[in-house]
Amino acid sequence: MITARPIRFTADLAAHRRYLEALGATRVTTAPGWEVYAVGSGRVALHAASDTQPSGRTILAWEVPDLEAWAARAREAGVPLTVGPTDHGLAATVTAPDGTTFTVDPAPQVVEEPAPAERALAILPIWYTRPDDVDGARQVVAGLGARQRVTADSGVWTDFACPGGGLVAVHAHDDDPAVDLALEFDGDIETLVPVLAGAGVEAVLIDETYSRTLQLADPDRPGSTLWINEKQQDLYGYRSAEHTG
């Protein structure tokens, strides 16, 4: 089962720890310049920024319990991948049709780790790609083993649930391909405002056309925000695999 574990490169690890721990995430890996947090569903990795990986960059990444078995299934599904040594060990490297490259890593062998305090929170990396490349991106995500969940009738948005935890969305836009970090909350998102405020994190509640979101100041990109989306309930203009008979 594949688990979403996007990587955010940052020059301010402490700021990310602040909102993640306030939201009930649990730190499960600590190494120099590298921390991994488990949220209710999925994980997120924080990596110290460098000249080659600037602060604020987010990339897709994943974990699987059996890399060899997963790679065999993914190849059968048409995922363009190679398995071999990388700068962080043996992994599968995937290059999508739009040029987006990411790795699928063996999940670390952990005997026991503390569960996240807030089970309703899920990691939600958003893969932005050009309209002509949306179908290719969807096929790659499905080939990884994720299940299509909510799709906009317009085709501009499709999100997927990963069996091992976490979500990922494919979002059409006209700029170069990019990945953004976001979260989803399956509950009343307004209840998170005082929780974050107690940790010194200001959150702005926004009523979007599809659902509500919380927006936090992005620690790595002045003037930008990190989004926490309330799980979508209004499906006007959308189709959901969770609501089909």
Could you characterize the architecture of this molecule?
The chain has 245 residues and is an alpha+beta fold. The protein has a single domain, classed as 2,3-Dihydroxybiphenyl 1,2-Dioxygenase, domain 1, CATH 3.10.180.10. Helices cover 16% and strands 40% of the residues. It contains 4 helices and 21 strands. The protein has a 6-stranded mixed sheet, with helices on one face. The protein has a 5-stranded mixed sheet with strand order 1-7-10-9-8, with helices on one face. The longest helix has 11 residues, at 134-144.
Give a count of the beta strands, DSSP E runs of length 2 or more. Answer: 21
The CATH architecture is Roll
Main sheet, how many strands, which sense, barrel? 6 strands, mixed
In the CATH hierarchy, what is the superfamily? Answer: 2,3-Dihydroxybiphenyl 1,2-Dioxygenase, domain 1
Query: What order do the SSEs take from the amino end to the carboxyl end, as H and E?
Result: EEHEEEEEHEEEEEHEEEEEHEEEE
Task: Provide the gyration radius in Å.
Answer: 17 Å
**Overall helicity:** 10-25%
The unreliable regions are none
- Count of folded domains: 1
Describe the global form.
globular
Widest sheet: strand ordering: 16-12-15-14-13-21
What's the average pLDDT?
A: 94
Proportion of residues in β-strands: 35-45%
**Tally of DSSP helical segments:** 4
CATH class: Alpha Beta
- Secondary-structure class: alpha+beta
- CATH topology tier name: 2,3-Dihydroxybiphenyl 1,2-Dioxygenase, domain 1
Briefly say what this structure is.
The chain is of the alpha+beta class. Helix content is 16%, strand content 40%.
